[in-house]
Amino acid sequence: MGAVAGEAVPGRAMHRLFGVYSLVSGVALAFPYRPAAWPVLAALHIAAAWLALRPHAAAAVGAALETRWPRVTRVLADWYPLLLIPALYTELAILNKAVFDGHYFDPIIQGWEEAIFGGQPSRELARAYPVLPLSETLHAAYLSYYFIIYGPPLILYLTGRLDDFRRVTFGVMLTFFVHYLFFIYFPVQGPRYLFPAPGGEIAAGAFYKLAHRVLEAGSSQGAAFPSSHVGVAFAQSVLALRYLPRLAPFLFVLSTALALGAIYGGFHYATDAVAGLVLGVAVVAAAPALIRRLGV
């Protein structure tokens, strides 16, 4: 989506960030294990980067679209990064296989688990506490990830705080992109692909079943370390301290429960969750300086 005339600095920074990610992630398609359809994917990456990194070309496209569909164009110019998250996530398995041909780095992460936690918490936590109300609470928190991604930006957008919306979107997308580059160039499957799912009484829970259905429908192999669920959740929590302070305590509690749910449910190694938390907070701390650099 091209830039819209008069767009603020955070909006320009977001377009350029998207362009840089398109190029860096697209490098994976130069590796020898790329799929047969790699020319199409490469063309999409190059086109996205070209539009995002060439302000005049993007502005021309945006102006042409705005002439016919002004409101839709303005909304899409703001929302396209968030709306493209599912597509960008889906292609991760294709890109990391293009680089490593299905090799994953789980043994390294499992070694860290043993060294740091003295075992495999993603296998042991649910076995130690097979309590249905606890399980349902943690699985529900894990599913709240989708509200955490889209809820705060939507609140800001609907209340007309467009500059704040763009800053939050930039911070969230920067967090996603950093995690996604790990998934492409250091893919880890996670315990869900290697260990049996927790069973027993907790498997009868509604939120347990829903979480597993969601993952079965849309999980991207190799996207475990660091946990983007945890990283994005805590990134949003930190951003909310500034932009939605009344919502921030709720998001921190929800994010903590989400992180525990990721481990309890066997979806992520504990190391994934800790690394995601640290990375999410660090990335958000760096976001304002990057907005100033990219938004000029």
Gross morphology is globular
H/E element sequence: HHHHHHHHHHHHHHHH
Please mark out the parts with pLDDT under 50 across 5 or more consecutive residues, or reply none.
1-7
Approximately how much beta-strand content do the residues carry? under 5%
Q: How many DSSP helices?
A: 16
Measured distance between first and last alpha carbons: 19 Å
Domains counted in the coordinates: how many? Answer: 1
Q: Which whole number gives the mean pLDDT? A: 91
Descriptive account of the structure:
The protein has 296 residues and is mainly alpha-helical. It has one domain. The protein contains 16 helices and no strands. The chain has helices at residues 9-26, 38-53, 55-68, 70-83, 85-90, 92-100, 106-117, 121-128, 132-143, 145-158, 162-185, 191-194, 206-218, 228-243, 248-264, 270-294. Helix 2 crosses helix 3. The longest helix has 25 residues, at 270-294. 46% of the residues are buried. The model is unreliable at 1-7 (pLDDT under 50).
Write a short abstract of this structure.
With 296 residues, the chain is mainly alpha-helical. It is 75% helix and 0% strand. It has helices at 9-26, 38-53, 55-68, 70-83, 85-90, 92-100, 106-117, 121-128, 132-143, 145-158, 162-185, 191-194, 206-218, 228-243, 248-264, 270-294.
